[in-house]
Amino acid sequence: MSQTGTSVLIADDHPVILKGFRTIMEDAGVETIHEATTIVEAYRSFYRLRPAVVIADLTFGDQGISGLSLIRRIRTLEGRTRILAFSMHDDPTIIARALESGATGYVLKDASTDEFLKAFDHVRIGKSYLDHEIALRVAMLNANVQPSPLASLTEREFQVLALLKDGHSYQGIADTLTMKYKTVVNLCSTIRQKLGARNFADLIRIALKAVS
């Protein structure tokens, strides 16, 4: 399918992935391709350029699943924008959160080039896209079949949990997310209660298992 005239913004903090995206998009006939490597740069680029399609990773550096907030802000600013979330996260709860935030489609980073282009073609014309297996897993969430322990967490709690998993201290999390130390402590206490963690070590164990 010809992509002539379609403008695309690719938001990912890995140079190799950005280069790969650009090559795939150019081979598919996309003429206007913009790149961003941070959440702030991505939002500013979108605000200034208003591309038709945004391809956004969910994880930027040590900021946890911050791509969810980017998707939500873009969708709030321009409801017609097509957004394809492209991530390593295959947890159905995270995928559902991305769709709830405003993603038009979701594809995993280990997908083939053909699958990625299929997802892009769907999203470009405003059609939703999920791999069949992923769609079934997301649907199972609503049927309460083996619900993920992450289901009850807010977006901010997701970010905190992901940073804990990566070995950040409370102060490190506070600095990364521009929060007060006490707020981080309170959030971690809330996360422990929601996930049924007995202590801090148990919370880390759950984080390592749940946030892959």
UniProtKB/TrEMBL annotation:
Domain (HTH luxR-type): residue spans on this chain: 146-211
GO molecular function: DNA binding
Keywords, sorted A to Z: DNA-binding, Phosphoprotein
Residues carrying 4-aspartylphosphate: D57
Domain Response regulatory: 7-124
TM ranges: none
Name of the protein this chain belongs to: DNA-binding NarL/FixJ family response regulator
Naturally occurring in which organism (per UniProt): Methylobacterium goesingense
PANTHER family for the chain: TWO-COMPONENT RESPONSE REGULATOR
